[in-house]
Every structure is written in structure tokens, then in C-alpha cells.
Amino acid sequence: MKFQILGSVQLRHGGRQLRLGRAKERALLGVLLLNHHKRVTTDTLMHALWDHNPPERAHKDLQAYVSRLRAALRSQGCTAEILTQHHAYVLHADDDQLDLTQFKALRASAEAARRAGRVDEAARHLYEAIELWQGPPLADLHTSWAELVREDLDAYHRLPGYQLLCSVELDRGNYYDALELLDTITSGHELDTRCISLRLSTLNAAGHYAEFDSYWKHIYRRTVEAFGTGPGRELRQLHQQLLFERDALISEHPAVASVPAPLPPPAQLPPTIDDFVGRAEQLSELETLLAQAQLTRQPTTLIIAITGGPGVGKTTTALRWAHGIRDRFPAGQLYADLRGYADTPPRDPGEILGEFLQALAVPVGQIPAGVEARGGLFRSVLAGQNALIVLDDAQDSSQILPLLPGASGCVVLVTSRHRLAPLATRHGARRVALPPLAQAERLDLFRMIFARSRRQRTDPVALSGLADLSAGLPLAVRLLGERPSTWPRCR
Known about the structure:
4 domains, Rossmann fold, 3-stranded antiparallel beta sheet, Arc Repressor Mutant, subunit A, single chain, 5-stranded parallel beta sheet, 491 residues, alpha/beta
């Protein structure tokens, strides 16, 4: 007899499912099986079965479920037993009766076989292991506790199992099988470092160089959108290593080189926010500056600096406007956080230029080392192109100057706490100053935050006091809005 929890909770024998009672009893069995040989308190069981809303008779219901479950197991001739301890239950079953335990054992055997070089044996173990997953674990149980369990089982067992199988298929040279397996687990794990590494390695080994390059650009954009920066050091090093191996192979065997597919233009703008309020005057001013530059066809790059104190909303305003005009820049949108006033050191312009050139499809091997050389190549690539470049949180003009394109069709949008006078003097930058939010705008933002958190209406007098306390800084409004427990007279 075999217990199944990797899917709906079942007891199976000879290929058929045996009757185990009602849904709640099967759910209880699943929780006990997940912790077999371990003491599970009645409080834990009630939380697992009913979340934080157990019925008044929860303890009696639990006792009844256990009693009926014991009877059902005995009637099926099952040797597993449920013991009662002080305010707890323990289920004892043979390890080889439970699918999760089988999965762990098969995965361990596969790892040992791979280490010994027996990759075919490792593959057999792993295919047998993943066949045990018949659906979401504990599928009969629909509580938040069960959702957390499913997430843990996926992250610590199913996903590593699939990743190990992908590695084994890569070892065996079965690149298409490895890619199919990666497609199976991509949903929900697109930005998992191991999944990205495996796909890059497989595409490179298979000689799919155009797809390799396209996938790297896609991952680069997605990590910037999700985290505000590109892939981490580990992935960047792997990417460089694979490119080096590719170049070496192509130099020895030129016939393996493939014509790269055209890559989509960069779209690096981070997401904007939903609860944006005010700034109508500044957005209109930005639009006017752009319209004038396009109408007069000025021969230089349009540079606009959005300036203001910390927390006044420079970045959110810049991104709000940038998203609204991005379709006017077919060459793409580039974004860099210069970290002028972050806790970490400011970004090096040379490093940013390297990232921009990669985003513009310049092969890594063709990117020069020096800042001046990179800047010259950057201007050459964008010559005659219409691109939008957002340089966020600049410390001073010296950080910006190397990043300026020479193309008249480009727009550079800068945010900074300073006026950046050298940028205006030398390059004609236009400045748009951001003042604090007006009182009505502060109140609107508070109301939007309350609506999102479904709070009851707040006392108008107290709300006005909070608006005054924020000093018109959107960041302060958000911090206050997200910590209602600290508010006086606003609970």
C-alpha cells in the first residue's frame, strides 16, 4: 500500500485508489503524513484544517476525524497507525509507503549516481521521482497553511528535482529534453538563478546562439523591472564564460556560427506606481519641452533635469512621464539608477555604459574598456536613433556627462537633488523643479492608500494633521499611510 500526498491525498494498492472517508479526514491524513513519525499538536492540526477560524466544536470534530480515519485504515488492511499523545497525534508508516519520502530517496540516489558518472542511471531515478508529483501537494486542503506547505515543497523538493534532471540531461547531451523540462518549471520561477543558468548553458551547448542572446536580453530587462538592477554577479560571470567558450569554438570551427536574430529594443523602465497624484503642472511642462524640441528639430539631445529635495517624488514623476512617452522612442528606453545618494557608492559611468551597450545588442567582446571609448561607441550606436534615457538619482553633473548621447532624436531625463548647473551651462539642460504636494494632493494620496488597504474612513481632522505632518513629501505620506498603528486618533 502506498500513501500519496503529492497531489490529492490517497491510499493506493495494486494501482487502484482505496476509500478513505470524507475530504476533511483525507486532509487530516495528509497533514499527519507530511509529518509522519513526528508529533503534531491539535493546535497545528486545527490551524491546518481551518486556518484561524475553527468551528466551536473543533476539538470534538478533530477527535471524530481521527477515529473515523483509524477505522478506515484498519478496514483497508493498512499497517499505518495513528497514536494519541498529550494534545497531539503521531502517524507511523513505513518510509517506503509515502510518495514524498520515495521522491527524496530517488533524488538522493540520482545525485549519488551523477557524482559517480552514471548519468543514465541518474536520469532513470529522476524521471521516476518526478512522476510521483500528480498535482499540487495536499490538493484536498484549501487553507493558507496548506498554501505555504505547497510553496515550500515546490521550492525545496520539486524545483530542485527538475533542475537536477535538467543538469543530467545537459550532461547526456539531450539539450531539447533539458529545454522542455525547463519550460515545465518556468512558470513562477522565471527569475530563479539556477533556472536561468541552466537555460543559458543548454542554449549555448546546443548552439542556439541567437536564442541565447535574446534570452539574456529578456532576463536582463526582467531583472531590472523586478529588482531595479541587472542580473547578479554569478549570472554575469556565467554569461561571460559561455560567451568566451562560444567565441573559442567559433574561431576553431567557423561553420558553427549562426546568424543572430534581431533583438528587440531595450525596455528598461522600472514599473510606475498606481497611486500617483498631482504633478499636473510639471508633467505639462515636460510635455511642452519635448514638443518644442521635436517641433524645432533642435540639433542636440534634449536633456531635462527633474530636481527637488529627498522624498519629493522625483523618480516617480520621471517614470510616470517616461512610461507615457515611451512609444515615441522606437530605439528603446534605457534606465540606470546612479545611486547618487544611496547607502552604497555611486555607480561608475563606465559600468553603466557597458550595460547600455549590451542592452543595445553590442556583443560583449566588442565593448572597449575605457569610459571614453565606451562613450564614443555609445554615441555611435545611437546616432540617428530615437532613444529615451533615464538617469535616476544623479549625484552631480560629472556622473551624467559621460552617459550623454550625441543624437538629436534622443531624450535624457535626469533626477537629482541638485540643480546640476554645469549640465545646463554646457549642454543646455532644462530644469523642472518639484515642489511639495499641495494639501489637497496629500489628502488624495492618503485616501488612495486607505482605499487600497480597505481601511475605514479616517477622521478628517486627524487626516489633515497627518497631511501637515508629511510636509507634502509623497514618500512621507506613503510611510505614514503604511503604518496606521502609529497614528494618533486615526485607528
